[in-house]
Amino acid sequence: MNASVVSRPAAGSDNSESREVPFLLADAIELARNAVRAVADDAAVGAHRGVVAEGEWAASHRFAARLPGYRGWEWNVVVAACPGADSATVSELALLPGADALLAPPWIPWEDRVQSGDLMPGDLLPPKHDDERLVPGYLETGDPAVDEAAGEIGLGRQQLMSREGRLAAAERWSEGDFGPRSPMAAAAPAPCATCGFYLPLEGALRAAFGVCGNEYSADGHVVHAGFGCGAHSDTELPSGAGSPQYDPFDDGVVEVVDVPGQRD
Ligand code: SF4
Q1: Is the pLDDT confidence value at 2 over 60?
Q2: Are residues 67 and 21 in the same domain?
Q3: Which residues contact 182 (CB under 8 A, 6 or more apart)?
Q4: Domain termination residue (choose one: 209, 224, 239)
Q5: Which domain holds residue 199?
Q6: Residues 213 and 156 in one domain
Q7: Using CA positions, which residue lies closest to atom 6 of ligand 1?
């Protein structure tokens, strides 16, 4: 009998197509197991988990992999036989993740992993290729803020911040701790725009941002013109109630007692 033409459903197969596997290939379990033993210890080959058809004349046998760090992985051995053959041969072997395999998380390019604040002394972080935050400093871009800066003699900068880069920075600063919607700004008596310690930026962001020069407040930080704090240069301490310094003296709560020897 030509064994290769007799077939039965794949044992343990999770193949939705449920293609039938020829007997010759389905019975080649020991052939497949020995193929794994040729590349791994006997103990690394676990139970047979099934066979699935890979085509009319090929099938994959799956064995549990008993390897440290490879929980849920399987040895996959592809066996094949040509029409009319009376024995199968091993085509290839691979260690593949099973349905519940422990897998490494998806690869994330390093440039997408770096977060604000990650840069340490001595680290190098060049901008991305085609970084949209930058434009060449020697070309006319049509953006007045960029072209004006680029035209300055001796500026020496090969790249300048693009409109997109400035908008992104302005959005971060506006939404940050020194933006107009921060809790500090909400409780401030007046905005930075009217404060003597407010040093407006030059360039395209001048209208909305400056640097605080007050050592008791946001010293050295870029602050939004609508930010503010209690150290605003026009701040005055309240007179009267509101501070223990101004509490009235209530002599009604004083008890007068005689102290022997203290009277005239
Ligand atoms: S002292 Fe306060 S109000 Fe004045 S610039 Fe600094 S943060 Fe703004």
Answers
A1: no
A2: yes
A3: 176, 227
A4: 224
A5: 165-224
A6: no
A7: 212
Rounded to the nearest angstrom, the distance between the alpha carbon of 225 and the centre of ligand 1 is 9
Residue 243 lies in a domain: no
Residues 143 and 178 in one domain: no
Q: Which residues line ligand 1 (CB under 6 A)?
A: 192, 195, 197-198, 212, 214, 217-218, 223, 227-229, 231-232
C-alpha–C-alpha distance, residues 182 and 217, integer Å: 14
Q: Please calculate the CA angle 126-131-135 and round it to the nearest 5 degrees.
A: 105
Distance 103 CA to ligand 1 centre (A): 51
Written as one string, the DSSP assignment of 70-99 is: -TTEEEEEEEE--TT-SS-EEEEEEEEE-T
Please tell me the pTM assigned to this model: 0.55
pLDDT in tens, 191-248: 999 999 999 998 889 999 999 999 999 999 999 999 999 999 999 877 665 556 666 6
Residue 107 resides in a domain: no
pLDDT digits (tens, 9 = 90+) for 75-110: 999 999 998 899 999 999 999 999 889 888 899 887
Task: Using most ligand atoms within 8 A of CB, pick from 178, 201, 232 the residue to mutate for ligand 1.
Answer: 232
Which mutation among 223, 234, 235 tests ligand 1's pocket best, with the greatest number of atoms within 8 A of CB? 223
